[in-house]
Amino acid sequence: MCIRDRVENVSGKRLDASLEVLLAGQSTKQALAVDGGKMQTVELDIRLPEPKLWWPRGLGDQALYEMRAVLEVAGKAVSDERSLRLGLRTIELDTSTPVARLRVNGQKTIDLHGAVWLPADALLRLDAARYRRLLARAAEAGFNTLRVWGGGLAETDAFYALCDEMGFLVLQEFPLTDPRQTDAADAFLGNCADTIRRLRSRPSLAAWCVGGAVQARAAPEPRLTAELATLCGRLDPSRRLIADSPETGDAQVWTIRTDPATRRVYWRGASVAYTPGVAAPSMPATLEASLGRPLPWPAAGQWPAARGVGPATTPREHILKAQAMQAAAAQRVADRWRAAPASEVIWQLNEPAAGCSSALVDAAGRPKPAWYALRRSQAPLAIFADLDPETPTILPADQSLRGEVCVLSRTAPVAGAMAVATLY
């Protein structure tokens, strides 16, 4: 494998140095000379006799290696040293199917089922324990992918270290969502370059993204998108730049195909579609802890996104009705994933602060009912109804309901099973 490093000489004179890389009991060393005030890129080759591969969740183990780089000046003093944990894997688009599917390590394929990740805390209390609790919720719900929202953070090293350990695939958005975003372009691209260099060695990082669900129909600024595509190609050529709008030109790497017989939509290319979520309040205990007092009532004007859920006599009843509506929508999303495989992420996994949002897990880490609905639908063995998409929400008494009852197993074949459909 090829290891590329940058060495900078901050002194005013030319220095002779050597760079040594140690990885899995192997080492390689190279001498170099760097002029004063200059930076030099060094490439070293190191061979691992029997490398262990890193696999995403559900496909295998997450083998990780510790790499150490040591820079010595004039063969005497250690000038600098860095340690890095990395995994060995390849990810490419599987072109044998119209469904957007990724082939990992040239052997196994995976559909991306995930959620959008927002900052874990509004006050940026981003410790490993908080990350681990939220990532455990994502794993329990059956997700294998997280899309980091560009309106938040280019996530921390602690977040990526845990994703490397747990086998999540991460789609990292750049903060480019507004077509009017043209000011300070050089500073923006410089920050993006620093982010790419910081995260490109992470095995969990699957792709870079522009766009976002908050700008529903707005294309990111085309010139900056094109420059970002060029930047990614130069600094991180093994990963694609995914764009969410058909107006983004060369960075657009996906199309869709609709099957006229089944009326199902298949994503082609490396794109991952957004699925909007349904908003519901945080769990009552989380809201009360945030307010420091019992929940106020009546709720009119308090949580506008949760209106329209019917009459209620208490705050708890109002919240549970809104959460039931969210859970029904989330379950339908997961059922669709099972019926027509595609790469898709739902908005959103978590919320930075208590309130009313589309989050599946509230700000205190408490799962909402929608989280349980998704977990049930994404279980290794699941049953669901695949209804005709033209079926109305409410049926007249004399109208037939058309659909299929589907039983799907992600593991071993199921023998002797019987599915019973009950209408109530």
Account of the 3D structure:
By secondary structure, the protein is α/β, with parallel strands linked by helices. It contains 7 helices and 22 strands. The strands form 7 sheets. A 7-stranded parallel beta sheet has the order 14-13-12-11-10-19-17. The chain is globular, with a radius of gyration of 25 Å. Mean pLDDT is 80; it is low at 213-217, 245-258 and 263-271.
Task: Furnish the topology, listing elements before pairings.
Blueprint: E1 2-8, E2 15-23, E3 26-34, E4 39-45, E5 65-73, E6 77-86, E7 91-93, E8 102-104, E9 108-110, E10 113-117, H1 128-140, E11 145-148, H2 157-166, E12 169-173, H3 185-199, E13 205-210, H4 222-235, E14 241-243, E15 254-259, E16 264-269, E17 273-275, E18 280-281, H5 284-291, H6 315-339, E19 344-346, E20 356-357, H7 369-377, E21 381-387, E22 403-409
Parallel strand pairs: 10-11, 10-19, 11-12, 12-13, 13-14, 17-19
Antiparallel strand pairs: 1-4, 2-3, 2-5, 5-6, 7-8, 8-9, 15-16, 18-20, 21-22
Global shape: globular
Largest sheet: 7 strands, parallel
Write down the secondary-structure element order.
Answer: EEEEEEEEEEHEHEHEHEEEEEHHEEHEE
Number of helices: 7
First-residue to last-residue Cα separation? 60 Å
Radius of gyration: 25 Å
Overall helicity: 10-25%
Tell me, rounded to a whole number, the average pLDDT.
80
Low-confidence stretches: 213-217, 245-258, 263-271
